[in-house]
Design brief:
The chain is an alpha/beta fold. About 30% of the residues lie in helices and about 15% in strands.
């Protein structure tokens, strides 16, 4: 069956019989807590790589409380020792399934820097302690769950699983890995915001339906042996032509009939039918047929061919609008990885209910006085929305949460601020943030539902702001004012990333922000100054930054405040040349910026920029053998040079920068005056710093080694 387009309201299900136990003070992490609650077993056990913080900013707390609100008994195993299966039996066998997640962050990004150096801290662990989760946590945890209880279903999720749902480039091993479904051996994968899917899975499992047989839910992926009868398979090349495909045979495969035609792409003796569909008919079919699935190039093909990898990535991103996306299928050997369309976004009423469940807003008591940095950061903040329509190619928010903004109601947000005031220990009257993935996309949506459901743009604001997008931020001004008026609130800060290209559309918003909600410094992210890399990032030009700065300075002066913008930039992003980084460094010096910390591009799975990094093609346009090539700084030496340009003022970088400037024919930038970038010699008594840290060996699957 194709996925249903009209979802059931999230909290309209008949509650499971265990509702009689009522909500738990904290979701139990031990048998003793289960006994105190009167439970003999858990219906669902969630396994997570984060410490358990019962707060709506932590994914496992949200999923756990949502399932609890449906009447299920939910336990949590947080940061288990993964060396054996025993820690995964601490709560016994769940009656319905294990839900496995890496945590709020991808475990590899959490554990390694952009230079593949091992981190020794973890903001989601007690006392910031590193090493509390394994590499590729979803895979490892799932394997241990399977060892502990062989026949218990496993549902995987979180951003780690979400971004690895098909064949994906893996930066840490420098190769294309197969779907995480196969390595984790999970029965079902839930991607994106998981509430709709996980609630439906739980109720259907409770009614006796096997989890491995649930195949019609949006936002899920699974493995099947063949395309079921009645489906029409349309090759992805009808949506985006990648050029000649090896081998040059008709690619439109349909397993509902038989044929004598063997595909050379899968020489494992599998015979499939070939149904010829001309591209125009395929486009019409795609729009009209509910039983149409798009076939991506198979795993072995994208593993060998970077151009077809970029093509597959482009098609995946084109099929992410819940209003028009079709299922995708990708063959891995003799099995098919099937992706149902994305979930329907939650309504405002549903999102309010999710955020107003009985969270304690604190870490579980088992952690005692241990400090969990990620909790400390968001303890007094309020998440007001989900999603992002910016489409920045280096960011995974859009791929995970979607482009459609899901906003909480004004009143629900005010109630949460009052809840923080009354229940959160240590509150001094300062709300640290009202935001989410972005600070100022709350209640900004397409003016037309019909246009929204048929749109295939990767960004609503690049290369320009769509005329159908509502950009009025006056409701956000009203929200800020009402939160400031809450009794006991002294200050409301805005710490989430600000889309300044949207902010300038409503100057009154900039005035309100600058006058009342900036604590001396405002961090924004132009990311670069040069058009080449900015076009590959899908970010606005530096002229938009200048327009915002002009407003920022004007309203700061009118408010009688000395305030400053702190811009963030990315080094070594695909499409960035050495000259681009040199020009950025000159801009930084002219404007008096000295970055203390710099960010190098990190190729996270499934991001568009990662497809550029791996394939050196531009998936923002049609991909072919002759399509636009994208220069990418891949070698460690060049990546370090790009970072060095951002820290042009650091003597450690001067020798490298001098050599680079000479080779670029820009020795005129070496000298002591203001127009020069670096001096011609090192400071007196200077000694190079010793290299620190460990690094993951490049281009292998070997463990980290000490760099000398």
């Amino acid at each position: 069956m194709p996925p249903a387009d009209t979802p059931k309201s999230l909290f309209s299900y008949r509650k499971y019989w265990a509702e009689c136990f009522g909500p738990a003070p904290y979701l139990p992490m031990s048998r003793e807590e289960m006994d105190a609650l009167g439970w003999d077993s858990c219906d669902i056990i969630l396994v997570t790589g984060d410490a358990y913080v019962d707060h709506p900013s932590f994914g496992m707390a949200v999923i756990g409380r949502v399932l609890e609100a449906q009447g299920f008994r939910v336990g949590i195993i947080a940061q288990p020792d993964w060396q054996s299966a025993e820690p995964f039996t601490v709560l016994g066998e769940p009656n319905l399934f294990f839900g496995v997640a890496a945590g709020n962050m991808d475990s590899m990004i959490n554990r390694y820097t952009a230079d593949r150096r091992l981190r020794h801290d973890d903001a989601y662990s007690p006392n910031n302690e590193g090493g509390k989760r394994p590499d590729r946590a979803v895979i490892v945890y799932s394997q241990r769950c399977r060892e502990a209880y062989r026949n218990t279903p496993i549902v995987v999720g979180s951003i780690e699983a979400s971004l690895r749902r098909i064949a994906h480039y893996d930066y840490w091993s420098d190769k294309v890995r197969r779907s995480i479904l196969l390595d984790s051996r999970a029965d079902l994968l839930v991607y994106g915001n998981a509430e709709r899917a996980i609630v439906e899975i739980a109720h259907r499992a409770a009614s006796g339906e096997a989890v491995r047989e649930i195949r019609d839910l949006r936002g899920t992926a699974f493995v099947r042996k063949r395309i079921p009868d009645g489906w029409t398979v349309v090759d992805s090349s009808t949506i985006d032509t990648p050029g000649p495909v090896e081998p040059p045979i008709d690619p439109y495969q349909d397993t509902t009939e038989t044929s004598e035609c063997k595909t050379k792409q899968n020489e494992a003796d599998e015979v499939q039918t070939v149904r010829v569909i001309d591209p125009l008919s395929a486009r019409k079919l795609k729009l009209m047929d509910d039983r149409c699935v798009i076939r991506l190039p198979d795993y072995d093909t994208v593993r060998r061919d970077p151009v077809l990898y970029a093509h597959a990535a482009r098609v995946l991103h084109l099929e992410t609008n819940p209003g028009n996306a079709k299922p995708l299928v990708q063959r891995h050997g003799d099995r098919e990885v099937w992706l149902n369309p994305p979930p329907i976004p939650l309504t405002t009423e549903e999102l309010d209910s999710v955020f107003e469940l009985p969270y304690q807003r604190k870490p579980h008591p088992v952690y005692g006085d241990a400090r969990i940095p990620a909790y400390e950061m968001i303890r007094f903040s309020v998440n007001i929305m989900r999603g992002c329509f910016g489409g920045c190619t280096f960011c995974s928010i859009t791929e995970h949460e979607g482009r459609i903004i899901q906003s909480r109601s004004h009143d629900s947000i005010v109630r949460e601020v009052e809840n923080i005031r009354d229940k959160t220990p240590g509150f001094t009257g300062v709300v640290s943030d009202l935001g989410g993935p972005t600070a100022n996309m709350w209640r900004l949506n397409c003016k037309s539902k019909a246009i929204e459901e048929n749109c295939r743009r990767l960004s609503c604001i690049h290369p320009n702001i769509c005329k159908s997008l509502n950009t009025d931020q006056t409701p956000l001004i009203d929200l800020y004012r009402d939160v400031r008026d809450v009794e006991g609130v002294k200050k409301v800060l805005i710490a989430s990333g600000l889309r300044y290209d949207l902010a300038v559309e409503t100057p009154e918003y900039v005035k309100e922000l600058v006058t009342h909600h900036v604590g001396g410094y405002l961090k924004i992210a132009p990311e670069h100054t040069e058009d080449g890399p900015l076009s590959k990032m899908m970010k606005p030009g530096v002229g938009t930054y200048d327009a915002f700065k002009k407003l920022f300075d004007k309203y700061s002066k009118e408010a009688g405040k000395e305030q400053f913008l702190i811009p963030y930039f990315i080094a070594a992003h695909p499409g960035t040349s050495d000259k681009d980084m040199m020009n950025l460094a000159l801009w930084l010096k002219r404007n008096g910026f000295r970055a203390d910390q710099v960010q190098a591009f990190y190729p996270s799975p499934m991001a568009n920029a990662t497809a550029m990094y791996h394939s050196e093609r531009n998936p923002l346009k049609k991909v072919s053998r002759k399509s636009e090539s994208v220069f990418t700084a891949k070698g460690l030496k060049q990546r370090r040079l790009h970072k060095a340009f951002l820290r042009y003022h650091d003597p450690e970088n001067w020798p490298m920068l001098r050599d680079a400037l000479k080779s670029m024919g820009r020795s005129d930038l070496i000298g002591f005056s203001k127009k020069h970038l670096v001096p011609p010699r090192q400071p007196a008594g200077w000694k190079p710093a010793k290299a620190k840290g460990r690094m993951l060996t490049q281009h292998t699957g070997l463990p980290p080694r000490r760099q000398r």
